Amino acid sequence: MAQSDIADQTSGSGSSAEKGSILYDPKVRGLFFQIVLLAALIAWVLWVRRNTLDNLEAQGQAMGFDFLAGTSGFQILTTLGTWVFDYQVGSSTYWDVFLIGIVNTFAVAFLGIIVATVLGFVMGVFRLSSNFILRGFATVYVEIFRNIPLLLWLFILYFAVLRNLPDKRDKVAIWGESVGLNITGLYAPFPITYEGFWMSAVAVLVAVVLWIILGAVMKKRQEVTGQQFPTFWVGLGMLVAIPTIVFYSTGAPLEWEYPVFTEEGPVLRRGYQAGIGMVIVPEMIAVWAALTLYTAAFIAEIVRAGILAVPHGQSEAAGALGLRPQPTLNLVVIPQALRVIIPPLTSQYLNLTKNSSLAVAIAYPELVSVFAGTALNQVGRALEMVFMMMMVYLFFSIATALFMNWFNSRMRLVER
Amino acid sequence: MKLSTVFGAAVAAFVAAPAFAGTLEVVKAKGFIQCGVSQGLPGFSNPDDQGNWSGLDVDVCRSLSAAVFGDPDMVKYTPLSAKERFTALSSGEIDVLPRNTTMTMTRDTQLGLVFPGVINYYDGQGLMVPSSLGVTSALELDGAAICTNTGTTTELNITDYFRSNNMNFELVAFEKADEVVAAYDAGRCDVYTTDRSGLAAQRLKLTDPEAHTVLPEIISKEPLGPVVRRGDDEWAAIVRWAHIAMINAEELGVTSANAADMRNSDNPSIKRLLGSEGAFGEGLGLSNDWAFNIISMVGNYGESYEKHVGPDTPLKLARGVNALWSDGGLQYGAPIR
Ligand SMILES: N[C@@H](CCC(=O)N[C@@H](CS)C(=O)NCC(=O)O)C(=O)O
User: Fold this and answer.
1) CB contact under 8 A, B183 and A162
2) Which atom of ligand 1 is nearest to the CA of B198?
3) Are B134 and A55 a contacting pair at CB < 8 A?
4) Residue A23, number of CB atoms within 10 A of its CB
5) Is residue B263 part of a domain?
6) Is B336 domain-assigned?
7) Among A25, A44, A142, B3, which is least packed, fewest CB within 10 Å?
8) Domain for residue B332, yes or no?
């Protein structure tokens, strides 16, 4: 600050002539070097690009993104992605394969993040519990999952799942005829919606918005009058009631397609019938379980560290003010702990998303498996495909980071 | 600020693109051949418990080593999954890729690689099922779950076959062959599909190999042969003629046992093959006993076949289409003259 002020003065005043040229002006110099750096960077990128293209051409490798429009001639395991994009061999393209990979990666990362967060918080709190059994259990959990590589967990869980489930011609009923499990996956009824169902979906949104408004209003009221209001229970009530009323008054436009299990006929045909009901394949379950259990162990440690970072004096002070233990935890300890927890939590979320690429080892068709594996093998455009894949992971990471930064700033200590 | 120096250095650091021509010189200079093989496919390329590799594909590496160095063991092996193999070759990590790899037009023309054109095993894709399913033909497989490897020709073939027969199926594709075997063994799939030679080899890893049946249908053509980088004709020629020498040796009755005596044979074809007449090795940039070394150290094609995959091995593969052309098979060696 001070220095540049002086510099401004000297270069601005006539006396600068004795100092010589603008070459010695720190501002000009700074700008100059930044421009040089930028130019060098651009030149370097262009040059690497040129060189790569030349080399590829010299090796006789084909280039370009035109392959994306070509039809992909291979089957893909039934998963969320193939269902969302209605994958059909013979008409779907490599671009569809790319999208399917993204959806499958996203699905397992999203579900993994949610469950890992819940499990991680529970385990982290358990680790600080005064109950010996809970504490011991959480400690063993964390040590086991943190210290064995994720890839091994994938194999252990996948083959443990496969080895312990009944075979394809058999099943364990989880909920009568409607939900069952065997080695080919978890089968459940599939919702088929009819006209007018969108109104029920909108009703859910309306209920959520009303809940938020109610929360804000009642908070104001509490600040003014000191009266409390059971926002949570009323909000939950609205969330159940409003969509239910709309759903039935529009004529219940939804039907469940139940899975069909056959026990007669040729051996090959017995078991759950393909394409009827909903199925979650064991590959997905194993990937999800492995990512969740593994990441939750790290989250547990982050949560423990966060809670320990809140000085004990804080809860003592809350006690002295007459707060009971539960509100003390909710209103005093956790808000302060969250400030310590959120930043490292973000990097665990990013890790989980990127780690999902290990799923290729156990046949879950996520991006790396289906696009950089199967599709790449058919068209051989390694550079283009790896580039596209990198962009997807970059996008996922930046989106997660932005969201968590936003959340972090909301959780900052607000001083009145 | 000497910008030009900085930039020049950066340029120099990246200009050093690998020189791909001249694999023979590179190989001679480093003193061994880096050979890309499978991660363990009995009969084709499989390490024993001391880490010594053997198999029909490994014999391709050994024959090249014998031809170049006069010693079949100057080889280092790089085990590669199906998915990794072509990148390993085009990036220069390996010198040659004999890894039960099917010659297809895409692979030969789009990857910067080239098949020298010799096929060391003519194969086709097959399907294996547990005998307990009671299935006798692939056409009964509508609705089946099928396990296979990613990065292979198999995914496309099986989809084509089921589509053209109007059947549905579920494809479970793993990155590595060991997981395919384990998942099939655990009952995840009704069918395991890959090259028939691969089925014969992989079934040995199942808990009960006898409880599985290979169905009669052969649903594709899988000519398996070595691959090299495009643009190195000299090295491609060595790979090509090493195989042809082994075929011609079998045709002419030259074996690892009698090769030394056969050098004095009166048959001009044998003399040319074994280097006692003409200077054929020179044309390859090798010594004139190149083929003699291959045959005396590795054996002729028939010997290699019988030793690694033939009826007396656990794979029990009959010669079939891999017999010499003179016995009604497809193995036909261009003349050495
Ligand atoms: N010939 C086919 C398939 C080759 C292939 O990868 N086969 C598998 C199954 S037999 C294999 O080699 N597995 C052994 C390994 O991955 O180590 C191709 O070139 O794409």
Assistant:
1) yes
2) 10
3) no
4) 9
5) yes
6) no
7) B3
8) no
